[in-house]
Amino acid sequence: MSPNIDSSRARYAITYWLLKAQTVQVMDAEEASQQVRETRSRSLTSLPAEILFDIANRLPAAELLCFKATCRYLWFSEEMENILMERESMAGRYGFMQRLKKDLFTRSAENEIADGLKSQANLACSVCQVVHPKDCFDEKAHAANPYTRRCLGSAGEIHICEHDKMSFQQVKEKVREMYRGESQIRGGCFQYLDFPLSPCVVLQPMLLDDPTGRSKCEYLLREMFLVSSTPNYIEVGTHQIRKRLFRLDEYICPHLRTSSESVLQQLASSPIKPLSPKFSVGRECCDLCFLEKKKKNLGSCKAPHCKSVFQISRWPGRGEISLYVSRNLGSLNDATDPPWLAQLDH
């Protein structure tokens, strides 16, 4: 029996569980209710059974009971009533999951999924665990298995530095580690590149959360490039720094490198001022946080939706001159978010 998803009550309830299962950060009740209201009219006719299966598989026992009750409106059968009576036992969970599997295999055998893709406006993404418009997928993915289908945003990777890449799924896992307190450095590498007059270049990427509103959280990729390290009493001129940045030729964002003319011009026109000693690179605050708040001497990428900013500054009491870069990865709710797509290599 194919699932009946015409019930408005089922549409509202499953939309709520879909939002609950995909959310990484903890939301308060008002914020969750607001998101449910905004997506209440979302059509579920194109939602494949495998997404329901994944949601049920990841929900804890207490919430699974409510989700099973929701699915009462999808399958009207004595079998489903018996499964619901099992409550929170292992047999109840196993029976419910087997019922979802059975429905998925039945629909596949009847070519319901394959035939339905031709008329569906939305397709399921196995990474984002939501449905996207067809234009978010490569044409080859239209007929792919929904369990392995990936949208363009989740199939791509971002350069977190010149030597390392991360996919959307890997970045989200780093975010989960951050909220669990299991990670301080959010991925990336430490690379030491020797070149004249500067002992090393240090790349230190970190993912930081930066709430910009009550119900919005964006994630930033912080990077620090050590451009020059000389005794504090030796002045390093702008021309010398421009030459070193040009030779460094490191990655700032998909649209800019340290050797880009627009970057060199901006750095040449901005004075290199020492930072206050109370600001330090760390999880909660860094020098670029302070500079962004003050809106001073910041260079920025002009590409659409790319919010990357950069600034060169001198550490007080030391002879180190560093280039700070901040790249906005968006909310990371799904891989079709424009800020995330802007960070992918094209």
Strands, helices and their partners?
Elements: H1 8-22, H2 29-38, H3 49-58, H4 61-70, H5 78-85, H6 90-109, H7 112-116, E1 122-124, E2 131-133, H8 152-155, E3 157-161, E4 164-167, H9 168-180, E5 206-213, E6 216-229, H10 238-248, E7 251-253, E8 256-257, H11 261-269, H12 287-294, E9 299-300, E10 309-314, E11 320-328, H13 338-342
Antiparallel strand pairs: 1-2, 3-4, 5-6, 6-11, 7-8, 9-10, 10-11
Helix pairs in contact: 1-3, 3-6, 5-6
Would you write up a description of this structure?
With 346 residues, this protein is of the alpha+beta class. The chain folds into 2 domains: 8-151, no CATH class; 156-342, no CATH class. It is 37% helix and 17% strand. The protein is built from 13 helices and 11 strands. It has helices at 8-22, 29-38, 49-58, 61-70, 78-85, 90-109, 112-116, 152-155, 168-180, 238-248, 261-269, 287-294, 338-342, and strands at residues 122-124, 131-133, 157-161, 164-167, 206-213, 216-229, 251-253, 256-257, 299-300, 309-314, 320-328. The strands form 4 sheets. The protein has a 5-stranded antiparallel β-sheet, sandwiched between helices. A two-stranded antiparallel sheet has the order 1-2. Strand 5 and strand 6 (216-229) form a beta hairpin. Helix 1 crosses helix 3 and helix 3 (49-58) packs antiparallel against helix 6. The two termini are 44 Å apart. It comes from Lophiotrema nucula. InterPro entries: F-box-like_dom_sf, F-box_dom.
